[in-house]
UniProtKB/TrEMBL annotation:
Belongs to the FAD-dependent oxidoreductase family. It comes from Isoptericola sediminis. InterPro entries: FAD/NAD-bd_sf, FAD/NAD-binding_dom. This is FAD-dependent oxidoreductase. Residues 2-256 form the FAD/NAD(P)-binding domain. One of its GO terms (cellular component) is cytoplasm. One of its GO terms (molecular function) is electron-transferring-flavoprotein dehydrogenase activity. Pfam families: Pyr_redox_2. Keywords: FAD, Flavoprotein, Oxidoreductase. It comes from the Bacteria. The lineage of its organism: Bacteria, Bacillati, Actinomycetota, Actinomycetes, Micrococcales.
Amino acid sequence: MGAGYAGVAAANHLTAEAPTPVRVTVVNPREEFVERIRLHQLVAGTGSAVRPLRPLLRPGVDLRLDTVTRVGADGVALAGGGDLAADRIVYAVGSGAGPAMPGALPVRHLDGAVALRHRVDGASAGTPVTVVGGGLTGIEAASELAEAHPHLRVRLVAGALAAGLSPAARDAVRRGLEALGVEVREGEHVDAPGDGITVDATSFAVPGLARDSGLAVDDAGRLLVDDALRGVDVPTVVAAGDAASTPLRMSCQTAIPLGIAAADTVLAELRGEQPRPVSVGLTMTCVSLGRRRGVVQPTDRLDVPRGPVLRGRAAALVKEQVCRATVRFVRRPARAVTRAGDGPLLPATVPA
């Protein structure tokens, strides 16, 4: 279920590694693969964030264009009518924008990014563009817009800027934004949009599908899982990516290995083995500041910032290579990116 980073990686890994022939079906509402880490480029008109989905799927993976309306232990119900039976379900529905403030447009999903692109293309010189949110999405959106559209007045409003980075990395981000002419207003909050264009980059939210299906979920609506990503109350449903309740941050850096790990859990059960606990270690945080600048913050396996910070043109090149690598990884998932044993083990969740 789902054809984002986690879903495509899981489907391809299952097809490549299954000990016996299996039938893998991907259910997704669109024929395109959305590169969420490039949505800010789509908004600014500096690049695309979509590519055909079918070429990313291995031969033997079926693609069914539909929307799942309910998840059960042995299959799913589809909006187009009928049910799709399954022995195992990989729940990889991802996440999107949280509730947006009235009048603002979200940048965290494709429809919002396309709407923003139209607004930006029609904006006259001097139009204010307010990006709300100081996380990586907001930073990349503000910098990309400022560099590609210097005739606009771009400002970034946030309670805190790049809060997950080290002080040195945060300083590099701030300097990069200011060099592009972005007005950074930290320690402020926006409750309602003002003049011009307001870009909402404040929060992620997962679909309510698991909750609506009566499955056990956390407060954010993510599927509660054990240490092998199996649903705590429906073990035939294996979650991956943003829709799985794990301590890992939402990102493609975690979605891809979680997709592979979910597939490994299914493969182990097909072999009659007990799945191993999932261990995913992280390596870095990358943020682009337009096409010519960036910041790369190394992290330890627990995602704690460490070491020297790479900045400028070199960091921009690293970030671009990372973006390209994600597509290669989902097409040909590598075992090396998951279950390495040097990351945190997922805790076993016990339902209340």
